[in-house]
């Protein structure tokens, strides 16, 4: 395992600052402990879930609870909990790794485990009192009790601030009286406790730990879902539920902070889970392509089939680079948390909230990478992919919800851009402020043909061009739209896409640079080719988003001038991606697995 510099990196700093590959954690940096938890999780899925066969793809409360309990017995449920409460210690890498490995097989029954260890337990971990942690976490990490996260309501999905569930303090001051309803609650059919969000006295967004057996708690019927058939999803109602005051989670009026910061981890979790699903899709698709014969040949020998496998593998490599880079960002702050400190909730908020932009990026890129992979995977299977006997059919159905989980991808795209805008308004993004002040003068084409002598020098140049182009366009957008920029959803979405691609390009480039430094260029040829192809195609997408933004801001001669300037400043000589993709695909075909 190579050394990763122990430095605190500010959230969003990748937009303006260059980073050295030694500051980036990659999958090649896993410790022996990481390898152990990965194998423990994979073995658990194979032994306790895949062995169930078709029964493991059906909703069965008793079976689900048995599986969760077994996960607790082998330490999976507590692997990312503080040591004081029976865990191995808070760590982003371990958390992401478990989420990936829980999803490396076609098993919907892993969903209840993921919900339990993620947004179910994390609110109590980060924001609970010592009494609440001792009362609930010790039993949650063994699987003796289970939990669920209850935020969404019939009229407030993405717009969580508009929830109607209400609570008020009883006259004797001993209880909060809770009324309202929730929908689409994962694990609701069997969970013992619920993290419930409500408005105290109709205004102060607050969080409560609610136990299932309390009077007034009602669970609705199971939803008949498109996918994830083995997971429980129900509505809930609360009718004059008496919640003891000691079950208020954190301070009144801080519930939105708890919800949004826990969802940050949830978004990283979605990205990690999608990575596991994507690798699984590559395996099934490559194996089928090697088995299926048409026109006297294995279909894996057809270039258009091979191209699909190459693109799936390439995007999985980029996603893997992003997930573990992001997971590591949390670790310095998490390791400094002292759960005997009365102010640990506020420190948790800062540690987790710092990287909300990066987490949204992982959620969007991960869910859309998976959707791309399962769609192409089903296409490789042809008509057989539409049949339930083939795993790709379930992967295809189960993937679709990932673009909706933890905030829709549309909302997250706008959130990424609006986070940048709000940080600028608050004076918390000085590096970008400085860049914005000079970019309109410095954004000029270099007419010299670049030499690109060093490994990945071309890719680093395109990365720099992406950052400069983003800053250039944002400088105009802030002037053109002024205070209404956040309302220009098409524009903020495009800016969000450029930021996502910027992070993806940089994550892949820095990981590959690290591999080159450790193994040498000859041994790193395969990942170099994947990085080269991905960066070129991603940069072409950046240019398309940029031109659409420009067309929204300018017209006539000014638009023509701006488009010409964008074209001049983004010019590059393309490489033969067809040839590279054939070489990338061959390794996937030979190994019948994700390859790097």
TrEMBL record:
Catalytic reaction equation(s): a 2,3-saturated acyl-CoA + A = a 2,3-dehydroacyl-CoA + AH2
Ranges of residues in domain Acyl-CoA oxidase/dehydrogenase middle: 148-241
Keywords: FAD, Flavoprotein, Oxidoreductase
One Pfam family in the UniProt entry: Acyl-CoA-dh_C
InterPro entries found in the cross-reference section: Acyl-CoA-dh-like_C (IPR049426), Acyl-CoA_DH_CS (IPR006089), Acyl-CoA_Oxase/DH_mid-dom (IPR006091), Acyl-CoA_Oxase/DH_mid-dom_sf (IPR046373), AcylCo_DH-like_C (IPR036250), AcylCo_DH/oxidase_C (IPR009075), AcylCoA_DH/ox_N (IPR013786), AcylCoA_DH/ox_N_sf (IPR037069)
Matches recorded under SUPFAM superfamilies: Acyl-CoA dehydrogenase C-terminal domain-like, Acyl-CoA dehydrogenase NM domain-like
Positions of the Acyl-CoA dehydrogenase/oxidase C-terminal domain: 254-419
Domain (Acyl-CoA dehydrogenase-like C-terminal) ranges: 468-565
Start and end residues of each Acyl-CoA dehydrogenase/oxidase N-terminal domain: 31-144
Organism superkingdom: Bacteria
Cofactors, names only: FAD
UniProt GO molecular function: acyl-CoA dehydrogenase activity; flavin adenine dinucleotide binding
Family: Belongs to the acyl-CoA dehydrogenase family.
Protein name: Acyl-CoA dehydrogenase
Source organism of the structure: Alteribacillus persepolensis
Species lineage: Bacteria, Bacillati, Bacillota, Bacilli, Bacillales
